[in-house]
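PROTEIN DESIGN WORKSHEET
SECTION A - STRUCTURE
LENGTH: 318
TOKENS:
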């Protein structure tokens, strides 16, 4: 049975209010390290990315029954070890899938129609119509890698643009639906005009978008990454942009981010790449906000609450 829960992130008063109303004891600690917290008294932990849930943390939290990660990324959690310990992992990828999908399409529209570039030019007194002639999504083939919650939401939303076809690749079988036909990667390489990445960060997906991968595409394409920055190698993306293998890149996440998503602009070793990224007209950058809407915050919190209550009811039966 779950009694006491530790909340490690700010800004989730709705979760705390609802859980307290259900009779759970909720403690908040937004600044201390695992060494400074008496983890042994807690049955559950709720967090985003402030702290790594490693063996040290888990061994201190001897009563732990669940870890709730608000959102979808779980790379700051030692999955193998919590499974070994019989601890339940809770996440809420359903909560921000629509926010991510909308953001991905918004970035794609901006890059294909030169919206941000032309806006900046107008602010400088330049009126370049022909130079900023756009390209339509309609009639293009869209490739999606990773067909979970966000991949499915992206496919559903982009279907309204009358694409030629939408294809998906996933390591799991039989995940395709009416919005995307599941195919192997060779078909993705052969047909895609637009590629959108919707994968978790794992050893398998780390740096999967590299130049050897890009070279396999039969034609230049637009790239969208709203998953994790380290799923691609920035230098290789820059090379492909320069030689025309990639028409344009929409990057909500960057290779140089840490788990806590702090400011990356003061790291000397990244400056050359970052300078190119922020000055290229072929790239749109946003600061890891694709799933970060007012609505998604509420939906993710709500899902976490529902799953904790469901788990507690399940534990009561045993």
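SECTION B - SEQUENCE
RESIDUE ASSIGNMENT:
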């Amino acid at each position: 049975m779950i009694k006491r829960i530790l909340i490690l992130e700010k800004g989730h008063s709705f979760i705390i209010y609802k859980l307290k109303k259900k009779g759970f004891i909720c403690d908040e600690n937004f600044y201390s390290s695992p060494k400074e917290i008496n983890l042994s008294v807690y049955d559950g932990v709720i967090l985003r990315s402030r702290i790594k849930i490693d063996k040290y943390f888990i061994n201190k939290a001897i009563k732990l029954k669940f870890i709730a990660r608000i959102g979808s990324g779980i790379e700051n959690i030692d999955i193998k070890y919590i499974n070994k310990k019989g601890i339940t992992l809770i996440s809420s990828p359903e909560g921000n899938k629509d926010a991510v999908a909308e953001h991905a399409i918004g970035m794609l529209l901006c890059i294909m129609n030169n919206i941000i570039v032309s806006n900046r030019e107008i602010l400088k007194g330049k009126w370049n119509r022909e130079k900023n002639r756009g390209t339509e999504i309609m009639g293009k083939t869209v490739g999606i890698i990773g067909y979970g919650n966000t991949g499915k939401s992206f496919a559903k939303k982009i279907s309204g643009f009358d694409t030629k076809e939408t294809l998906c690749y996933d390591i799991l079988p039989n995940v395709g639906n009416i919005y995307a036909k599941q195919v192997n990667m060779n078909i993705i390489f052969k047909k895609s005009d637009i590629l959108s990445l919707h994968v978790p960060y794992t050893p398998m997906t780390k740096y999967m978008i590299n130049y050897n991968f890009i070279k396999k595409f039969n034609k230049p394409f637009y790239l969208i990454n709203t998953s994790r920055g380290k799923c691609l190698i920035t230098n290789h993306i820059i090379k492909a942009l320069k030689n025309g293998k990639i028409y344009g890149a929409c990057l909500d996440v960057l290779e140089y981010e840490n788990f806590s998503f702090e400011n990356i602009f003061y790291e000397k070793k990244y400056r050359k790449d970052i300078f190119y990224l922020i000055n290229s007209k072929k790239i749109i950058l946003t600061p890891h906000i694709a799933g970060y809407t007012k609505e998604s915050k509420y939906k993710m919190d709500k899902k976490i609450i529902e799953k904790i209550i469901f788990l507690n009811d399940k534990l009561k039966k045993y």
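SECTION C - NOTES
The domain at 95-285 is CATH 3.40.50.720 (Rossmann fold).
The first strand starts at residue 4 and ends at 7.
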